Each structure stands twice: as C-alpha cells, then as structure tokens.
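Researcher: Going back to the complex we discussed earlier. I've cleaned up the inputs and rechecked each line, so this should be the final set. Can you rerun the prediction on the complete assembly and write out the structure?
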Amino acid sequence: KAGVTQTPRYLIKTRGQQVTLSCSPISGHRSVSWYQQTPGQGLQFLFEYFSETQRNKGNFPGRFSGRQFSNSRSEMNVSTLELGDSALYLCASSLAVGANTDTQYFGPGTRLTVL
Amino acid sequence: GDSVTQMEGPVTLSEEAFLTINCTYTATGYPSLFWYVQYPGEGLQLLLKATKADDKGSNKGFEATYRKETTSFHLEKGSVQVSDSAVYFCALSDHGSSNTGKLIFGQGTTLQVKP
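Model: Rerun complete. Updated structure for the full complex:
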C-alpha cells in the first residue's frame, strides 16, 4: 500500500508570496493532519481534518489555512509568506480519530524556504 | 496542557551498546504514546506505540513500556547499530479527552552510533 505522498518536496518562495502544499493520504485513511518542523520550535501541530471538516487547529496565525477534499486529499496554504515560515511541513494520515484508529503515518515533507 | 519531555541530546554510543532515551509526559486524559524516528532529509517513521497502561510496544529491537504510575515511556534497545543513528521523537495523542488525534511531540533526541 502506498504511503503518504506530499508535493512538492522542495519549494523556494520570497517574502509576501503565497504557497500551496498538497498531501495525499494512505488509501482508506480519512484523517489528515499537518505539522510544522523547525530547528527552534520543533514539531508543532497546524491542523487536523476528518471527512472534509477541520477538527482541530493549532496556534498559528490566520495566514495558515487548509482544507480536505472528498477523496481525503488535503492542501494547506500559507499567504503573505514571512522568513519565519521557512520549515519542513509534514503531513500525516490516520484511519480516523480515536483509540486504536489514530496512529498517524507521515509523509516525507515539503521543505519550504522563504527568501 | 499536555506535554512531552525527552532527555537532552545528542546521545553518542558505540555500536552494540545499550540505549535508553527517557520520555515523560503530562496528560489530562488517557493518551496513546508513540515513538517516531527521523532519518536525515526524511519525514517521521512510526517506530512503536502503546495505547494503555502497561502495554509494551516493540519493533526492530526497540521497546518501550507505558508506565502510568511514573508517566513515562522510555525507549530502549539492547544493542544499537550505526544504522540506528537518527533523531527520535516521543509523542502523545490525548484522544480520550478531546476526541482529536493531534500529536504532541517532545523536542527530539539525536542518537549517533559510532562503529
């Protein structure tokens, strides 16, 4: 079974631009979560989606948004990029939410560099 | 709020040495506990998990036991190899209290194994 895929793998943008990252979950998984990884802050939770509904949101500004489609694929968008948005963005999928179904499997990440 | 604390790294060991990476947690509900591993330039791979007190997760020679009385989930391996060199993350998912799969991560511990 194919794993979680993320596109693109690498992205270079300049301040003020916006970016869209894509995530395809493992087949049959209905929950998708996004995390930001930086050397200073570590791994921080961005969003969680289940059946096209945002279930949970981390403590990030409104410039960060996301959505999930009916086929469970997800996108996240960052508008008005800042230098501090440079990070590895990781997507994870799980069967559902709740005990014994919430094990998250991660994709390889999208490395975003903001110049 | 919920939190995870890991021992400071880096940890440097010789091949075939015994490994312990300490992890303690704070949670209001009944969390599932996880260890993930990240190799350079890659996403996170699930190493093992435990969903209730006294459960032991194991995989590839690594083990960790869910200790509710000491709120700990220490990672151990009897004989490390050079190929185990990576960053290890302890995480919890407190789905019981908030019905979310959101993962809360420790800061990560870098393991370097020398031949």
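Model: Worth noting: Chain B touches chain A through 26 residues (CB under 8 Å).
Researcher: Good, that matches what I expected from the previous run.
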